[in-house]
Amino acid sequence: MRRLPASRPGDPAGPGIDPDELPDGLVVADEQGLVICFNAAAERITAIPAAEALGRRLDKALPLEDLEGRRWWQLTDPYGGLAIRVRQPERNLLLPGGREVLVAARYVRTEPTGPVHRVVVTLRDTEARRRTERSHAELIATVAHELRSPLTSVKGFTATLLAKWERFTDDQKRLMLETVDADADRVTRLIAELLDISRIDSGRLEVRRQPVDIGAAVGRHIQAYVAAGQPADRFLLRLEQPLPALWADPDKIDQVLSNLLENAVRHGEGTVTIDITPTASPREGEDTGTSVTVSDEGPGIPEESMNRVFTRFWRGSKRGGTGLGLYIVKGIVEAHGGTITVGRAPGGGAEFRFTLPVAAPAYLT
Asked: What pLDDT, on the 0 to 100 scale, is given for residue 364?
């Protein structure tokens, strides 16, 4: 690849930056329209060798057409077109053979209305965008499917009660209203999951830190399961004292614990063990955070699925659910500056371990 002089004004890459290190395709033509830069990403995206492109006219080296079959360089005319134009916005264009790429261009002029000094073209593969679109489509389909069942139930029971209220006993009415209430909670949880995913994906998940007693938080979840009918001896909580002060968002930590314990109870077997221990720096010996491990004695997670557990829509079984819970758990833990891993427990079941760091002083002010 022919490289640009790093110090020349208007260059697309700053001093010391190798164009081949850029993630997007970069094609640069000089004032005569000859290609002087064709980086490695451009080679990969276009399947055109740099040796064939360098030194050729831009329209010949990069023969682009719009989706209607018109030649893009003739339409845009960077060197002879409107003198005040400085860019072309990103759009879908086609290379020979129908290869689709996302293309944007910038016109570098030495003076505001002077001749074009360079044309800088950036290229991006559309496959990443297609993956995003497929992910969004799958999310919409999943949400629509999950919403349909509780909304159908709510509509059915409310319509029945409105039409035949006098025909039902108080106990029957209570049962139907309790079902409606539970299904409304299910819809609310699903909407909350969608909001969490949106915030995680956009980096806007807020963490409102305050002191958290992680042992007491786990104890409350265990008590709730026992009250719901689970045997008390199914749960084993082990705390290693003393634990460092934990500053975290209590609602979000509850969300993490709820998801991990629900997975262990629903999909695991035997005893659900929760270990809470301090983590220490191997060199300094000081506590650096708190580690929580949730394990069960069930069949565990297949080895080939380990690397997909925290991705969207992963389900460990066919027992329902959106497959979004562990994706959200990972986002919450990482928003706290922590880490989460999955492995095989000593008893053969699944083992999830997340670690939250001791809060920095800035969080305590």
From this structure: 42
